[in-house]
Design goal:
Length: about 600
């Protein structure tokens, strides 16, 4: 229960108290700021409090947006202000030191003046007002009656930016499914879990290797995506954001898609066709696409002087409706990609599914990466220390690379193109030597050289125009090396074990991304050291491949995959269920 304090005499005939109670508030009244401060002191320290002007006239959803969103410590709409526990100290201070700041609007303005961030949600056509007299009040009430609150609530439950397939084939009805779930008390986390279970059942159907199984898998995969859209719409419809939801939302999409890849590979084996290499290649490509997205965005989202002729051209293209949809579709976002996978699963074979997936994602990766490189080369921007730290965290450097970086740093400043060039040279040596000498001690030497170049690449802050390419290069080098060594081993079970290892490592990298996006920083350094960093894991896999004549290589990869998965999952779960985890929810459709 939260506490809402009406700061003034009640207004006869007002439904405000009932509206606040329907939002979960215990409503009390205060005649002046000093009494409001006293009531605030009486409220339990761990709960949300709100100040509401009794003269408030507006939609219930306006109050919901202003007073119940859990993502913001302090928020306000005209006539109402709320503070979560972390902002209550500032609220108390304002009420005690500025007696005139007794109304919710005055409190919000005073906190703004002190530099406290007060969220003011975009209301659009929704009404929130504090009329002075009866005439103004009547006009405000008429404005409330003239607006269909529920229609706005349904429309804003859908992401403002989504792909073509999601926008026109899913959201027109999934928003109503979200409302149905809200009215029956279902939570977004429950819908997210249902989506995961549905996708896992789809993967199981695909693993049967029968035409009926493939058709059922395609249908279930599409239904899983409907539920995947519904959980976010339910969260926005009812403002049920949570730290657990952030973790589930951040990880389940990838778990569903990659489990489905594994199901297709198992089904193909039953039909006499081994496509594990294609499945692993698809997972590697998709994960590396995401790393490019995350790395570029983190490098540039808070840069100053962040302008570019290429970005200006993109903005002009966005003003032409059809180009927006074409550009969103050709990058094969999750909606289009899952629809393609589902349809091809039902009517073709797993091999064709993976061929289409690899070709489509490769084209999308080239298109988006080329555009971002061009933007970076033509952009005049000053990148921040925070961005450099985010790129360093995304690099996932282990003890070997850190040692090289520490011994060769010598106070060098970041910038230029040296970092991505060094990373590219090291990654090229590693991948080419894996193709030529993989499984030999010669390749172990190449892995050591890769660790050396990796350390040189991160010895200075990553503030150069193309330094955002460093983490993707490291991901490509590590993942492709595991794939190549598993293929060259040419023993049963090597590729499935490699698939599991890459999946475990990719989870660690996604977990790092969402911690950074939530503003809490990267995973603890002990975790990165415990799993070796990208260069340490690569060197270990190289040694295991060189010892394959004396040990069971697939078993060794499986043990390594399980060990990495247990360590990163345990720490990830501990973090995301803790009170310090951020309520991260994407408002744009991921690639």
């Amino acid at each position: 229960m939260s506490t809402a304090i009406l700061t003034g005499p009640p207004v006869p005939g007002s439904s405000l108290e009932g509206d606040l109670r329907s939002l979960g508030f215990d409503v009390r009244s205060a005649a002046d700021p000093s009494e409001a401060a006293k009531l605030l002191d009486e409220a339990p320290s761990g709960e949300r409090v709100a100040l509401v002007d009794p003269r408030f006239v507006g939609h219930l959803h306006s109050l919901r947006l202003g007073l119940t969103d859990p993502r913001f410590p302090a928020a306000a709409v005209p006539g109402a202000f709320t503070a979560q526990p972390e902002a209550r100290g500032a609220l108390h201070r304002v009420l005690r030191t500025a007696p005139a700041a007794g109304t919710p609007d005055a409190v919000a303005a005073a906190l703004d003046a002190e530099g406290v961030a007060v969220q003011r949600p975009e209301l659009g056509a929704l009404v929130a007002a504090v009329p002075d007299g009866q005439v103004s009040r009547t006009e405000a009430e008429q404005a409330v009656a003239a607006v269909d609150e529920e229609a706005i609530r349904l429309r804003t439950a859908v992401k403002s930016r989504d792909g073509f397939f999601t926008t026109y084939c899913i959201s027109p009805y999934s928003r109503y499914l979200a409302r149905w779930c809200a009215r029956r008390g279902f939570t977004p986390n429950q819908v997210t879990t249902a989506s995961l279970i549905t996708a896992l059942i789809a993967a199981g159907c695909a693993a049967t290797g029968t035409r009926g199984g493939y058709v059922a898998a395609g249908v279930l995969l599409l239904f899983s995506f409907v539920l995947d859209c519904t959980d976010g719409q339910l969260a926005r419809y009812s403002l049920q954001y949570s730290t657990m939801g952030a973790w589930l939302d951040a990880t389940f999409d990838r778990a569903k898609e990659y489990a489905y890849y594994a199901g297709l590979a198992l089904g193909a084996i039953r039909g006499g066709d081994d496509v594990w290499a294609l499945a692993l290649g698809a997972m590697v490509l998709q994960t590396c696409r995401h790393v490019v997205d995350f790395s570029f965005n983190e490098a540039n989202h808070d840069a100053t002087g962040n302008t570019s002729p290429t970005a200006a051209l993109s903005g002009k293209l966005d003003s032409v409706g059809w180009t927006v949809w074409v550009r969103r579709m050709i990058v094969l976002p999750i909606g289009e990609r899952w629809a393609m996978i589902a349809v091809l699963t039902a009517v073709t074979t797993p091999r064709i599914v993976f061929y289409a997936l690899l070709v489509g994602c490769a084209f999308a990766a080239c298109y988006t990466t080329a555009g971002r490189v061009l933007r970076s080369l033509t952009r005049r921007a000053t990148r921040t220390d925070r961005a450099a730290q985010a790129l360093a965290d995304l690099a996932d450097s282990g003890p070997l690379a850190e040692s090289v970086a520490a011994t060769s740093r010598n106070g060098r400043a970041g910038g230029g193109f040296l970092a991505p060039v060094l990373a590219f040279v090291g990654g090229t040596i590693l991948v080419v030597d894996a193709l030529v000498n993989g499984g030999t001690w010669t390749f172990v030497g190449a892995a050591v050289l890769y660790a050396f170049f990796s350390g040189l690449a991160v010895r200075a802050p990553l503030k150069g125009a193309l330094d955002w390419l460093v983490p993707p290069i490291f991901r490509i080098a590590e993942y492709c090396t595991i794939l190549i060594l598993a293929v060259k081993a040419d023993v049963a079970g090597a590729l499935p074990a490699a698939f599991g290892l890459v999946a475990a490592v990719a989870y660690h990298h996604y977990d790092t991304v969402y911690r950074i996006k939530g503003g809490t920083g990267a995973p603890p350094s002990w975790l990165v050291r415990a799993v070796g960093g990208h260069e340490g894991r690569t060197l270990l896999v190289a040694v295991l491949a060189a010892l394959s004549s004396t040990l069971d290589f697939p078993l060794a990869l499986t043990v390594l995959a399980v060990a990495v998965a247990l360590v990163v999952l345990a720490e990830s779960i501990r973090f995301w269920v803790s009170s310090g985890a951020p309520a991260v929810h994407d408002e744009g459709e991921p690639a």
